[in-house]
Design goal:
This protein is an alpha/beta fold. The protein has 6 helices and 6 strands. The longest helix has 16 residues.
């Protein structure tokens, strides 16, 4: 009986704390059926916060338009220089109000994730960004420029990656989604 009570107490504490032994993005990767599902799953994990957040996309975009330290190139949105909560909020705004970002150049840093659609024999790639507490993740799919071949031209899953590209909305099987097109990446 004591053993059962201790076990139930431990499980209750884990549920209340919201912690797991695997990182949220690793859990998301293993339970999804595509990049869109992966990004939606990450957003669902933050549903408590996302329902209450209103984002002023103009002020976020203006604050992010500073060139990065590692390049002379300027970006409309540089997600590598702000604090994690601002970066997470900006990506959230990009996904939920894409019309405000279409055609802007974006630089971002996060975890590399991918999905292979066996039916279409096509790979999909994304960069996931966590908030400051690393409990919520939001990300964007990217479509590499050139003829990249997985796995030769990509890092292992969950590796930190830097991606630059042009923000666009695309359609796949009748569904619209956001992606960085003509993306260049390094890790």
């Amino acid at each position: 009986m004591k053993r059962t009570i201790c076990l139930l107490s431990c499980i209750s504490l884990l549920i209340l704390a919201g912690c797991e032994s695997t990182s949220p993005s690793a859990r998301v990767v293993s339970q999804t059926t595509g990049v869109k599902d992966l990004l939606e799953s990450a957003a669902e994990e933050s549903s408590v916060v996302t329902e209450e957040v209103t984002v002023d996309t103009e002020s976020l975009s203006e604050s992010s338009s500073v060139p990065s330290e590692n390049s002379d190139e300027e970006f409309d949105i540089d997600l590598t220089i702000d604090n994690p909560d601002l970066i997470y909020a900006e990506v959230f705004a990009m996904v939920y109000t894409p019309e405000d970002y279409i055609g802007k150049t974006v630089k971002m840093k996060g975890q590399f994730v991918f999905y292979h659609d066996e039916e279409k024999d096509q790979y999909y790639y994304a960069c996931l960004i966590k908030d400051a507490m690393a409990c919520c993740a939001q990300g964007l799919e990217f479509i590499p420029a050139g003829d990249c071949v997985y796995p030769d031209d990509f890092p292992p899953a969950l590796t930190e990656i830097n991606v630059t590209g042009t923000f666009n909305t695309l359609e796949d099987d009748g569904e619209n989604y956001c992606a960085l097109t003509d993306a260049v990446y390094y890790w």
